[in-house]
Amino acid sequence: MTRLVMKFGGTSMADLERIRRAARLVAAEYDAGHRVAVVVSAMSGKTNELVAWTDGAGKATGRAMEGDDEYDVVVASGEQVTAGLLAMTLRNMGYDAISMMGWQVPILTSDVHGKARILDIPPARLETALDAGQIVVVPGFQGVTESGRITTLGRGGSDTSAVAVAAAVKAIRCDIYTDVDGVYTTDPRVESKARRLKKISFEEMLEMASLGAKVLQTRSVELAMGQRVPVRVLSSFVEPGENIDQGTIVCDEDEIVEKHIVSGVAFSRDEAKITLLGLPNKVGVSAAVFSKLAAANINVDMIVQSEKRSGEYANQLFTVGRRDAQAAAEIMEAAKAEIGFDAIKVDENVAKVSIVGVGMRSHTGVAETMFRALSEKGINIQVISTSEIKISVLIDEAYTELAVRALHAAYDLDKIGQ
Ligand code: ADP
Ligand code: ASP
Ligand code: MG
Known about the structure:
Radius of gyration: 23 Å
Structural class: alpha/beta
Distance between the termini: 38 Å
Largest sheet: 8 strands, mixed
Bound molecules: adenosine-5'-diphosphate, aspartic acid, magnesium ion
Number of helices: 13
Oligomer: single chain
Helix content: 25-40%
Shape: globular
Number of strands: 18
């Protein structure tokens, strides 16, 4: 019998009524002849509440809150509740369901608490239950280290749990049920004219996710691409059999007939810009700056260096996640004399807006359209970065929505699929 993994996000688990609806969707797939493993998120808002509690309790180990193993013990608990509730609901409907916590499966992860990576899922326990006809409900987001400590996979991590479980049990597909009926050309909360994409390539989805489209966690797309797990994103706000045409398939590029030059616009407000002024323009300076940030586990995204006219000095600008901005600034400030720069500026009012599309590989003029559309709205571009299938710009945060809408219109994304 074919195996299927179904994942329900926080809004799909938000209360008992939603859990009952999810249970009906699960039961329908089971009745259609699949062996079903379900991965669930905590009720929406729950993880935020748990994180706030850990903030209030303070650090237990002296490490940053997210690196604390007790942080994971607390924040992993939200998913335990929904897994149990969904299993109970399914039992009440007459199905043989059982929950299995991350440590019971086990979902083995690294020990980087707060953002652990899945290392392995030995499939035996899951497979035994599935083969016996049980519906297995697994809490997303949580795992366990080899030494038995509970871990979590980073915010949005239940998507990754679901894809990893699908790969482990060789499921035919991983269905991600959420509060939108698929992947759109941009976040439909920002642009009401956003269109649903019937298919999107793994590569484009990977870029969209890592550039801020939170509909799927980046790591889940990486895993799906690497393990060749077909993923479908669809709405849980339907009854079984209703609206069967909905959803987006994330698949290989060559399975997509209708190719777009630009498939989507993504944005991220989780950005901060740090500028170092008057750096000596000599060998080894960048290495000194970035090795200090790397040692503190701070991820750097965009980097620009510009030489001053005299040539002796340069300015360097880089972006980091907003929650790392203060730490990055402090590290740089402490190294000011050693590195030898004049001043440092931190700007947390920036956002990154990006366009993504495989068609960029073979079409010219894509960047020009982007820059023109932004200039027509009077939006200043502070930094640009590109890769083969995306162009990102850093702008003043206040213009994020305006920029997203302008770019959506500039590439006619509101006409996709019509
Ligand atoms: P879940 O709780 O089900 O995991 P998330 O809130 O993590 O749901 O992700 C779904 C949300 O992602 C949507 O409500 C939508 O606002 C947002 N989103 C951002 N970009 C996109 C996009 N391109 N397509 C669809 N949804 C998007
Ligand atoms: N509950 C976790 C979060 O809110 C994981 C998830 O929902 O994917 O980040
Ligand atoms: Mg999510």
